[in-house]
Amino acid sequence: MTFSKTNMWRTTRDYVFITFGMALYAFGFCGFILPEKVVIGGLAGIGTIVYFVTGIPVAITQYALNLLLLAIAYKVVGKKFVMGTIYGATMISVFVAIFQPLLADGFTHEPFMNVVIGGICAGLGVGIAFTHNGSSGGTDIVAAMVSKYTNVSIGRTMLYTDVFIISSSYFIFKQIDLVVYGFVVLVLVSYVADMVINTNRQAVQFTIFSTKWEEIATAINNEAKRGCTVLSGMGWYSKKEVKVLLVMCRKIESVTISRIIKSIDPQAFTTQANVNGVYGKGFDELKVRMKEPDHQHAQADADKN
């Protein structure tokens, strides 16, 4: 029962934050970016082009294309990906439909300020949604389908697609400044979203030299709920054997680890280093595309022949 309640709470919390993230994205897009006629990446960018050419609201084009891509992705990528994407895609279209008429006049008359504020809001929205297992669809779907059958990464596919969409706006408006603003938004959204996403994933590595290593290791296990690896070494100056503790933790947990060390042995020699990524139990899952064995390639070639 406890497990079910925990799952229900986590799922509800995820959907609340995905909804908030999509609302924030739509607010930044409709209130600051769209009034400046700036075309950004993704289906929002395609919807912007269609809107200024035909007058069809962005939300309609965006949602219709999302549904089309999701229908294709259902067969190519699978049901799990589609179900995880359709809620975010629906919410972003709903909020864009609400905010577009309400915020048509924008907030300021400074184009660059609007672009910066809109890009930050959109990046925060994407980051919040992504950290709670959500997605706005769009180029994410295209990238997932491409990476299914090629070695091109999802990030690179999304970048290529967004650059193409933004660049195509020049042929509609004939204004190079709008294209530049579009790329500014692309960079801002990517940077801010990465900051939000990686805040929880940043890791720290502690290397601890102390005569009270057993007490420190036990306290880290019990109080910080983190594991320790005990290494054997030798102090070359003293010519004595020493025990070295190696500890991996989230960046937000580093203060707790430091307090434990200081409370037990203020004289402990400690180094702390930022780590780009920690994968395994208690941390992130290592996701790599495995190379197929040579015999599978040979079998595939034989089947074709």
Describe the structure.
The protein has 305 residues and is α+β, with helices and mostly antiparallel strands. It contains twelve helices and four strands; from the N terminus they run αααααααααβαββαβα. Strands 2-3-1-4 form a four-stranded antiparallel sheet, covered by helices on one side. The chain is elongated.
Apparent shape: elongated
Instruction: Give the strand tally.
Output: 4
Residues in helices, as a percent range: 55-70%
Q: Largest sheet, if any? A: 4 strands, antiparallel
Task: Pick out its properties.
305 residues, alpha+beta, 4-stranded antiparallel sheet, 12 helices
Task: Provide the fold topology.
Elements: H1 2-33, H2 42-54, H3 58-76, H4 79-102, H5 111-131, H6 139-149, H7 154-168, H8 170-173, H9 176-199, E1 203-209, H10 213-224, E2 229-235, E3 240-250, H11 254-264, E4 269-275, H12 294-304
Antiparallel strand pairs: 1-3, 1-4, 2-3
Brief description of this entry?
This protein is α+β, with helices and mostly antiparallel strands and 305 residues long.
